[in-house]
Amino acid sequence: MYMTNEYEVTNITKEIKLLKEPKLLLTIFSDTEVSNLIKFYYKKGFVNQRNKLIIEVMADAGLRAEEVRNLT
Question: Which SUPFAM superfamilies match (predicted)?
């Protein structure tokens, strides 16, 4: 605020334009890519079944990798 005279107060920052930050676009998997990931882990074994389940939960719930890591 800047006082122009004894009674009038003017906001001199009103004319300053703020810089816009560029939007970050996220890369997402298509339905086909998710299906291919699930098919890749369709083999028997604990690790394959675990990975398949993680991918299915991520796809169904829209979770990110960090959110899945924090589930435990």
Answer: DNA breaking-rejoining enzymes
